[in-house]
Design goal:
Distance between the termini: 27 Å
CATH class: Mainly Alpha
Number of domains: 1
Number of helices: 8
Structural class: mainly alpha
CATH architecture: Alpha Horseshoe
Shape: globular
CATH superfamily: Tetratricopeptide repeat domain
Helix content: over 70%
Amino acid sequence: MKGEMETAQRYIEKGLKAQNESGISFFLSTHHLALSIIHYDFEYYEKAFKRIEEALRLSQKNKENHFEGYSKIWFGRILGKMKPSQTEKAEEFMVQGINILEDLMIKPWSTQGYLFLGELYTNTGQRDKAPENLKKAEHLFKEMGMDYWLAKTNEVMGSL
């Protein structure tokens, strides 16, 4: 898996370089978002945070609401992991992202937001808030047939 993630990272960086050279800023945020997720998975949280800040900035600048919503969810997830003392701010970003994506009817991403919000509550000792979000994520992932994310949701639910 690590080798696949490193390969993905190389190709995303190559795409980012090519797009920067082209001068086209539309969808530029996606490269930073994807790199942020990879850094998060490698537990390079500072790098992940810098990338997600850039993804969020570019998505707002280019009026890419769907990427703004998803970036806000990841911003909150990374912030909550890096700085548990800022749980309230992390929660705020995640809820904003979920709301944006629900308004746009992008259910797979908004549902990940519920999972990550439940994860945040679980990891920061707010276990009473976690089940509502995790059950919602579980229901929606089942409905959409998203078994990978359903398994991730069940892992978090199992740790309660």
